[in-house]
Prior knowledge:
The chain is of the alpha+beta class. It has helices spanning 26-34, 36-42, 145-164; strands at residues 8-12, 15-22, 49-55, 62-68, 74-85, 89-97, 119-128, 131-139.
Amino acid sequence: MTANNSPETTSHESGVVVTRIFDAPRALVWKAWTDPQHLMKWWGPKNFTLPTCKVDLRVGGKYLFCMRSPEGKDLWSTGTYREVVPREKLVYIYSFADEKGNIVPASHYWMGVDLPLEMKVIITFEDHQGKTKMTLRHIGLPAGEMEEMTSVGWNESFDKLAASLK
């Protein structure tokens, strides 16, 4: 089960939109986003890992992820789920964090530019010709380099997601 080889990615003033078609049932793609054991298989750009992943999947519930770079640097993120519609839609707030889940600015890590303390991520899941069409919207990114880097990071993550669905 693989992803469409030509993902549709668009940038606009408020962030990034990525649409991918996965050769997997919608229930499995949903599980990949919501089950910590599955998230740990694919989350993060190429050569990054996710050694820590806590998910409280409910409206108002929080998540805490630790993404590790190939150089061994940890980047923590946290957020709150705003909308959870099983197998259809997931909306959450994304923030950089410390290992205790306290929100920190992006400059706390190796990023030279500060991003908003909170950004919104919306993922929709649809049946599409026996496969799953997933659309991600990452809202609140400043235009330019950070938007481009985020787009690359999501697409590399989704390549890993496709491989994890096999």
